[in-house]
Structure formats: structure tokens, C-alpha cells
Amino acid sequence: MKTPWTYSVTGYQFTGRSHSEIIDVCAAAGFAGIEATPLLFPRGGSAECGRAAADYQTAGLAIDTFHLPFRPEDDITSFYETNRRQAVSEIKGWMETAAALGARAVIQHPSCLHAPPAVEGMDPFIRALDKSLGELLPFAEELKLIIAVENMPSGRHGERFGSRPEHFTEIASRFAHPRLGFCLDTGHALMSAHGEAHRFFETMQPSLAAYHLADNAGDRDSHLAPGRGRVGWNRLFQAMRDAGFTGTACIETPPFDYGPDYSREAWQSLLRETTALSDLALSNEN
User: Which side of the chain, N or C, has fewer Cβ within a 10 Å radius?
Assistant: First the structure.
């Protein structure tokens, strides 16, 4: 069975490159588009964003998702109210950029810090998230965006907010909203759950709005190309098919090749090898 979805690539791999260069590489390699980032576009949805979006569209490329910033000062679950309010204000400006680019969804980290719920308790995170989403979800509704909350890798202190499937069960039950979804990051899931990484898909599936595909050895967020680590790709791709996914999944890695100035052939190989991996998984039920 042929893969029924398409693949985009993360804009973080093109920081410092012009849009014409990015468009040239993506079109030549055969990607469906890019996941936009704050390092490639101005904040606030200016006319410049509209012009850039038109250039991508003319080349047959889409900007389906936009990765919101995730610096420590962008933490929407900060326990310090002044910091949390500033983070929400900053995020809203980037959501305007995403809307101007024609994005369908924005990717939001549930926390930008490493504070473990085992020490802090879940309640402070949930209270802060409640206040932040109380502002951000109505704004997403106005902009016709989905806020896709991404699962996190384990932190330097072990478990962190967003690094366990049960955290997403809690978020889904407390904050159900038509504009709230989830983003499954395969590399983060492997790091935090190892052999139980599939539980993230099972928990998030009813609200899955985006995918970040990356591989690693389970020890660090090394962003290896799919198939170069220990992620269970057969199980994941079969689950995506069974869920009826036909959208665009973002490959959040560079090519597995010499870089950082990767050749067109390297980008073509990344897409070709990932598509072959999913094609094989969908033709093999074992």
C-alpha cells in the first residue's frame, strides 16, 4: 500500500537561508511544504508573511503548521504570573504570523522548563495552563487555528510536564475544545517512554492534529532521520493509516548525510527513504 499522507520538513533546518533557497530545495526534493518557525518569519502577521506564503503556494508548497517559540521565557505554564502573561502575549503575536501564512495548526510546548511534576505536583501546571488556554483558545478560534500541544522528552530531572501519556489524558479531559489538539513527537515519545512509546499515540489519537517524525536511540533528542534509530516505525505508520490520516506529517530532522549544508540529493534521499519506510510498513502487517 502506498503512503496516503504527504511529508513536510521542519523550517529549523533552514535557519539563515532565504525563502527562495528553501522553496528551491523543498520543490526539488518533493516535499509538500515546510513547518514554519519564528526564525524564518516576522512576528505579528505582516504583509511580508502574506507575500512569502504566496511564493510557497506558487511553488506548490504548503505551510501547514507553525512551531511556536519555546525559549524559557515562552513558558505558558510558568508559575510566575508575570512571566506567564508575557509568554501568552508573545505567543499570540506568533499565532498571527501563523494565520497570515495560512497555517492550519500551531505547535505548542506544554512547558519550556524541566520542573518535574513529581516534585512540583500537577496542580500548578494545570492551573497555569488553564489560564493560558483560557486566552489562547478563543484567539485560535478567531484565527481559525488549532493549538497542537506537543509531547515532551524526559528532562534533566526525569519526568517533566508533557512527558507522560497520562498528562495528555488530563489535558484532554480538562480542556476539551474544538481548537485544541495534540502533536505527537516520535523522538520525544521514545526518550520518555522507551518500549511504551506507542502509548502516546493511543492516548493522543482522538485529538491528534500534527506529527513530528524524528528518530533516536532512546537516550537523547538527536533528531536522526526516520529509520536511523529505535522508533517503532511499522507500528506507528500502521496506526496512522488505521486512524485514517491523510494529511501532512513533518519530518523534524536533517538528512542522514554530511552537513550542515546538505545537498539537494541528501534532501531527496530523506524524503525517498522515509516514504519507502512508510510504504513498507503499510504493506507489512507483522
Answer: C
